[in-house]
């Protein structure tokens, strides 16, 4: 997914006409995404940032801007719900819950992120069952 940052002035401009995506995310997670002031602390401390296509701060910016392409981002699936970002956010935003809300929105559209048919027999035999259960809970609608 191509990164396209948006200036904070644009965020200010849309604050007063909340989009559908941000409204849905806020309803699901109970967080006020407009509280984010884009300091980047969440991305700086995320242990999985190298594997993400958008930093957690960018995910929030996309949602605030009502940009649905964020739902195609690898990041929401790479997030391990470790709460590091939530602990460190100076605005007390629970980004972990925001990521979970985004996954819920995708799953409600019945789009499975993990293609079960692509898991080989060898992988099924070697991967711990607990990992499968965790995967199914997170990625399968
Ligand atoms: S740490 Fe909090 S305020 Fe800073 S960018 Fe992340 S969500 Fe926004
Ligand atoms: S909860 Fe997710 S986004 Fe936040 S630090 Fe952990 S892996 Fe990164």
Describe this structure as you would to a colleague.
The chain has 141 residues and is mostly helical. The protein has two domains: 8-109, Fumarate Reductase Iron-sulfur Protein, Chain B, domain 2 (Orthogonal Bundle), CATH 1.10.1060; 114-141, no CATH class. The protein has helices at 8-14, 20-29, 41-45, 56-64, 75-78, 84-88, 95-108, 121-126, 129-139. 26% of the residues are buried. Bound molecules: iron/sulfur cluster (2 copies). One iron/sulfur cluster is lined by residues 36-42, 56-57, 60, 89-91, 93, 95.
What's the topology here?
Elements: H1 8-14, H2 20-29, H3 41-45, H4 56-64, H5 75-78, H6 84-88, H7 95-108, H8 121-126, H9 129-139
Bound molecules: iron/sulfur cluster (SF4) (2 copies).
One iron/sulfur cluster binds next to α3 and α4.
Q: Could you give a quick summary of the protein structure above?
A:
This protein has helices at 8-14, 20-29, 41-45, 56-64, 75-78, 84-88, 95-108, 121-126, 129-139. The protein has 141 residues and is an all-alpha fold. The protein binds iron/sulfur cluster (2 copies).
Label this structure with key terms.
single chain, mainly alpha, 9 helices, 0% strand, Fumarate Reductase Iron-sulfur Protein, Chain B, domain 2
């Amino acid at each position: 997914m191509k990164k396209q940052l948006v200036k904070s002035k644009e965020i200010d401009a849309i604050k007063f006409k909340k989009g559908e995506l941000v409204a849905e995310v806020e309803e699901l997670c109970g967080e006020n995404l407009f509280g984010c002031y884009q300091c980047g602390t969440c991305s700086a401390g995320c242990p999985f940032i190298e594997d993400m296509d958008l930093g957690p701060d960018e995910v929030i910016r996309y949602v605030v801007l009502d940009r649905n392409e964020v739902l195609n981002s690898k990041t929401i699936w790479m997030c391990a719900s470790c709460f590091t970002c939530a602990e460190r956010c100076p605005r007390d935003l629970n980004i972990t819950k925001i990521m979970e809300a985004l996954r819920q929105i995708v799953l409600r559209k019945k789009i499975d992120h993990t293609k079960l048919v692509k898991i080989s027999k060898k992988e099924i035999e070697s991967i711990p069952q607990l990992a499968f259960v965790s995967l199914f809970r997170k990625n399968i609608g």
